[in-house]
Amino acid sequence: MTSTSYSVRLVLAVALFPALPAASRSQGPPAEWRVAPSPIAEVGASTQSDILFSRIQGAVFLSDGRIAVADALERHMVLLDEDGAFDGVVGRAGEGPGEFDDLSAVWAGPDGGFSTWDGGQRRITHFDAGGQVLSTHRVDLTGGGPVEGGNLDAHYATLPDGRVVLAWIVARRSLDGPVADRMVLGLFGSDAGFQGLLGEHPGMVRRFGGPVSGPLPMSPRLWGAVVGNRVAVTDGVDGHIRFFAPGEAHPIEPPEAVDHLTLQLPAPDRWAAWEALDAAVGAGEVDPLAARTIRAADRDEGSIPTLSRLFSDDAGYLWVKPYEPASDALLLPGGRYRTGGEWWVVDPAGSLVATLELPADLAPLAVRGDRMLALGRDSFGVERIVLIGIDRSD
What we know:
The protein has 394 residues and is mainly beta. The protein has four helices and 29 strands. The strands form seven sheets. A five-stranded mixed beta sheet has the order 1-26-25-24-23, with no helix packed on it. Strands 2, 3, 27, 28 and 29 form a five-stranded antiparallel beta sheet that branches. A five-stranded antiparallel beta sheet has the order 14-15-16-17-18, with no helix packed on it. The relative contact order is 0.16.
């Protein structure tokens, strides 16, 4: 494995939150965290590893310290030891036990095991530490399920007790202008049994009709994370995060959020955002179809998000990334996980704990203690997994 030296620019956190109310400020100045100048390990393209990734859909630290990486295009899991060395491949394309059609998510299980969500087969599979299938459970949607017109597809969170949050996507069509998808969150047992509706939230914003149909170039995207026994959900608009409680799940009607948090991030400048996106198009960083959509878009339509990512770490902190149009806009290449840049770490009450800036080619996937798993890309867009340390001292 090769090591790449990263130069890191630190963000001065005190200046980032000048408008936060007193209740949202941390006690004293926030910490200035750093990533290590060199990674612990790199696995994948542009390294000396024999492993190649096609499309990394997620990666997690397992309870025994190892790492599990979901590769959606290869339809298998890659296991690494705690130092990033290859430890095996689990799964393949297919419909049998331990096989995948649409490998969408992975999360840690007990005793070094892990579990996966296959959105194409609507199936949860549990594996032991050796990669052997323990059990497979398909979501039963007999009768169409509780959400009319919805397509059960996305995994958003896994609770400490093994229950999972999946979402139905309801695309609402309108010829009167852009409209947001309706995302209905469902709570499911580890056996894929439906336990109730957890809540709902607007999702991707789409336009139907006109010169170009499809998602708006800077449409929001929904993200979920677990904080304690609550599920935090945001589309990044206005820095608003909703919290839903599994104990409030209802069999028919999605309940309201039990709590809210608004991070007062700087409001994006609409025209500066479009200029940044135009520059990415001019530099050839998007495919021709996406470029056509961007050029034809009505630049007065839709909201520009203030957050582009959300996840939680093992200490219960929320990691959020301020939205950068030139790197985070929906139609840019790279899928869900794109770039590094500025990241803020906040506690569930909204207090700013720390800030750091990642190298432009690293997108964080998971954080445990003083280690981060990140997705890296070379100049050709080929993906790799990067295991890197975090310096939490000031």
